[in-house]
Amino acid sequence: MKLYFLKDDALDTLKTNIKHNTRNYSKPTNEWIYEFFEDENPFEEFKYEVNEFKLATSKEDPASTDLENIITLYSNLKTLTDSQAVDERFWIGLAHSNFWEYMNQRLGLSNKKLEEDEIYKKFFFAYGKRKSLLVHPLAKLWWTGRNTYDERRSDPFELTQFFRKNYYHNNLILFGFSYSNNKKIVRSFLTTMLEIEKDGTNITTKIFDETVKYLNILSGTYLLDYLEEDELKEKIEEKVKELIMKK
Fold first, then answer.
1. Which residues have C-beta within 8 Å of that of residue 97, sequence separation ≥ 6?
2. CA–CA distance, 224 with 201 (Å, rounded to integer)
3. Angle at Cα 184 formed by Cα 179 and Cα 185, nearest 5°?
4. Which of 4, 76, 146, 213 is 20 to 30 A from 20, alpha carbon to alpha carbon?
5. Which residue has the higher pLDDT, 12 or 245?
6. pLDDT tens for residues 126-144?
7. What is the mean pLDDT of residues 135-154?
8. How far apart are alpha carbons 57 and 103 in whole angstroms?
9. Are the beta carbons of 128 and 86 closer than 8 angstroms?
10. Angle 74-80-84 (CA atoms, 0-180°, nearest 5)?
11. Range 97-112 burial, b when 16+ CB lie within 10 A, else e
12. For residue 219, what pLDDT is reported?
């Protein structure tokens, strides 16, 4: 399977012509893109081919496929380097090429009146680099997979299961802080949360948010890199229990 990213000039052209092309984004295929650029191909082939795969969709509940698609996308594009995976040309290119149909169905574009601002925020990097990677419909799937994948486990995607609910919110909150670049910290946090849930405690949005804030404060007090995972888990568990008692 060949993957296609956007050329620099083509990316700039699409950005500056969103208003002109708004209606085109509700079309079932991306043929209009080639017509728009006339004789020039706006895409370039990614240098590596991957196994053929598709992302799942659901008309009844589009968000219900997110967890499955995190696993699918990261499994098939695991060899991406971080520098490749932060390149907006790659994700915006895939959104306009290989995964055009997925984008259309996941966002329900054929069933709504489209606005210029919505297209910009959904298809392009409309925010700073970090936030864009957390909210772009394709980039966020890969990065959640990358940040939660743990090759030491019998199921490497066990920690990913935490995002089976409240995915958009939890992903944005947890990975919005710089400490989330540290896999040890993320693993400790998610492991603790899953263990507490398995014991029958519901991790509410408030508990989740407050624990993430606590972890951010903790990162300013301790050199978290030097703490063992068990030490981190113990501190996180104590905070969650404290929050539960306050409910």
1. 3, 4, 30, 43
2. 26
3. 40
4. 4
5. 12
6. 999 999 999 999 999 999 9
7. 97
8. 9
9. no
10. 125
11. bbbbebbbbbbebeee
12. 79
